[in-house]
Amino acid sequence: MKKKNWLLVLCLTLVLGSILAACSNSSDDTNSEPGEAVDGGTVTGAMDTAPAGLFNPIFYADAYENNILSLTHEGLLGQDENLDFIPKLAKEWEFNEDQTEVTFHLEENVKWQDGEPFTANDVVFTYKSIASPGYVEAGGIRTQYVERLLGYEDFSTGKTDEFEGVVAVDDNTVTFKYANPNVLALSDSSFPIIPEHIFKDIAIADMPKAAATTKDVIGTGPFKLTNVVEGEQYVLEKNEDYWQGAPKLDSIVWKVVDQSVILGMLESGEVDFVADPTGIQAADYESVAANDNVEIVEQPDFGYQVMGMMVNHREQGDTALDPSKWTENKKLSNQKVRQAIAYAVDREAIINGLLYGKGVVQNSPIATQFWAYDDTKPNQYKFDAEEAKSLLDEAGYKDTNGDGFREDPDGNEWVLNLNYPLGNQIREKSAPIIQEYLEAVGIKIDLRQPKQAAAYFEDLEKNAQDWDLYLLGWSLDSTDPDPSGLWSSKAAYNYSRWNNPEAEQLLVDAFTPPDAFEQDFRKEKYSEWQVKFSEDLPALILYAQNSLWAYNKRLQGIDVLPYSFLNNTHLWSVTK
Prior knowledge:
This protein has 17 helices and 23 strands. Helix 13 links the parallel strand 18 and strand 19 (444-447). Helix 16 (501-509) packs antiparallel against helix 17. By secondary structure, the chain is α+β, with helices and mostly antiparallel strands. Strands 2, 9, 10, 11, 12, 13, 14, 17, 18, 19, 20 and 21 form a twelve-stranded mixed sheet that branches. A four-stranded antiparallel sheet has the order 5-6-8-7, covered by helices on one side.
């Protein structure tokens, strides 16, 4: 079969585009050194995809919504550049002797953005909401923060109305109580807090559509969401009464613009920063670097791009994520087929061709920055088309009619569909390349039309009963390496509907006391889990792209974290 070499075409196109962009960067631009920082002013950030519109920490689903929430809401704890926990809304904390309770002492001068006082009752309400019956059915996906709390099972299933897990001792003191000693206690208690007085009269099922979630957003953070032009612009104005002091900036504006024009807007000064989750494109790196008014931050991404494989399909309407109701996807049920797919994709070539080398192959769903990441024991799946063909032959998938594509073991036509969302240009360009790699070893691919991100993820969550392969990107939780939130059988983000009891047990072992209080023990269990993941392979981790964030040098006070550009934004300022 004759096919275009899409990888070569795309690489040449990108290289030429980069050269032209670099040449067009005029040498007579005004390149002035930053002046003195002043209070006031507005800065503009660019996003290539519109937030889905859920500006409520307990219901948001995408990184673009999180760009807003990072400015409006806060948790009891933050993290520093070493990923250690630091005080935030809680100024100090202590554990009881057997590590089943942790008591937080809250900052006493914190107010919600509408002037109401922040208290321990707000903390209780937040966690009670996540633990409530109907939370998952309403679209909630953050149960990993409450599952270990005392009495969670009985409360979440409606067996009791008493919520034992989080208790307000007084207005400024709150205690988290766990069913067992909890190695993840600080991670579990670091979730952003929502205001009780705003949501207390709204049923959990109605919260996602409530005005307090979509537009009239109230947090404790340094900036208030004051204007939304859906899909276009999101304006955040400073919170004058912010507990750490009024922000220096007057406002931060997010603009949603096509990825193809972000570079030009950055160079012209129409936007001041481009950061999470996409940043600038690797193809534009040299052009951006040539602009003396722009600073680039490059560091390993705290996440990855993935090609998921639908091992099972969720039953229509299964909001409880019950694995006993799932049906096996026979097109991908053979483990050797999934392994063959991994061998067939040349990930290094994608990194070199589309990312200009600014990324790394990753073989585990655990971030490379964590102590738990194992880059040796799991199968590395280096590109080997012949090994892919051999595995497919062994599995009984052979080309029986000479059309260049393999039939299934029963002689039936075998076609895998590949789905992907719009928004991330590298991912969009990766899709036809992956199709070419898979078809080169005889796997016929139906490359479906991409969808807007919001519609894509709704389909992936609720209507993916006929999907086989899917592309998406994950921004990982920085609080702990535990991958349960994405890959345990009942995790809402486990879109592959992977259900492997042995792997599940390893995740449980990794935070079961007393052994789990020793990091070496947890590291061993996570290593075993990563091996199991690489064998069963519910997804191929394509690559971890380097974060390439850029900002205008007039923007002062930038202090990035390993996982976010948006840090201490109340201290940001601009020069004259």
